Amino acid sequence: MVYFTLFITVMKNIKFLIIGMLFGIILVKSQVISWFRINEMFRLQGFHMYGVIGSAVIVGIISIQVLKRFQLKTIHGEEIVIPDKIFQWGNVYGGLIFGLGWAITGACPGPLYAQIGSGFLVTIVTLLSALAGTWTYGLIKNKLPH
Amino acid sequence: MELLKQPWPWYVAGPLIGLIIPALLLLGNKTFGVSSTLRQVCAACIPANISFFEYDWKKDSWNLFFAAGIIIGGFIATYLLSNLGPVNINPHTTALLQQEGIKDFSGLLPQDVFSISQLFTLRGFVFIVVGGFLVGFGTRYAGGCTSGHAIMGLSSLQWPSLVATCCFMIGGIIMTWFILPYLLQL
To answer: Cys-Cys link to A13, which of B31, B39, B65, B154 (CB 3.0-4.6 A)?
Structure first.
């Protein structure tokens, strides 16, 4: 019975595994997972990363407008809903902290996973440490300004 | 096939990443974002009675599959679709990094900083462990990372995501320009 439920979960989610795979391939092939690329970006000495993020956003904006204009539904026939992000000061404080970390590790969470797949096994330690960071945030969340 | 093996330019990679947004929405109302997978793993493995981790993580298990996919994709791209070589960054960046103490430019990451043997040096510890901690802590505090805020949030025209993205950049620039040169000397 447990195996059956597991099987159903896997089958339901296999499409997200495939999208993740494509994302991982793109991240590696476009060198977004490179520490050097991130360093170049923060020094404002290269256009590559800005081009990747900027064109992703433009295509994202157009796609979402198309989905809304034609009132497209999900493959399960549900209405598409994008939850609103509500501003909190955590966006600022957390954003700055993440920025500091991003420039050190040269990787945000997506590239962390891709680096591990690419054989940079030391990144497993970076990921474990990121998990510890997220866990610590959960632990002290109520004491932080938001 | 030769074309696939070359590094992809930004105008191929960026639009493809952008298309992940409608793909995830159409496949089940999922919003693009990677850092939430870290919370998921915490909730699944070490909830420790912390209210932030006490939710039905199984309902959102799709993103764990997404994360596993990224690892597999990274493997495929590196071992089947790559001509490995140095990253073609701006020579000025290379020169500055050389001055600051980086010696190895042969791969995607400087191996003289990021390797298992470096983990037990002060410099390696800071770059791998402290850096990773800041990424995990900061993204959750900010409510998202580059994918959730900078790409998904901006694409759906949400101004809190613009604030967050600007802060990512400010934090990164402060680190790269003013602190990293000292960290590399450790």
So the answer is: B65
Distance (Å) of CA B113 to CA A129, A143, B96, B184: 16, 34, 16, 8
Residues 6+ apart with CB under 8 A from A33: A27, A107, A111, A114, A115, A118, B74, B108
Chain A nearest-CA distance from B49, in A, is 9
Q: What is the pLDDT of residue A1?
A: 72
pLDDT at residue B4 above 90? no
ipTM metric: 0.96
Tell me which of B3, B4, B6, B17 to substitute to probe the interface with A (most A C-beta atoms closer than 10 Å): B17
Q: State the first-to-last Cα distance of chain B, in angstroms, to the nearest integer.
A: 43
Q: Verify whether the Cβ–Cβ distance A133 to B134 is below 8 Å.
A: yes
Question: In chain A, whose CA is at the least distance from the CA of B111?
Answer: A120
pLDDT mean across residues, chain B: 94
- Res. A2: pLDDT tops 80: no
The pLDDT of residue A3 is 85
> What are the tokens at B12?
């191929």
User: Is B141 within 8 Å of A86 when comparing Cβ atoms?
Assistant: no
| Count of A-B CB contacts under 8 Å | 504
- Interchain CB distance below 8 Å, B78 and A14: no
Q: Report pTM.
A: 0.95
Rounded Cα distance between B119 and A87, Å, is 37
- Would you say the C-alpha torsion B133, B136, B137, B138 has a positive or negative sign? positive
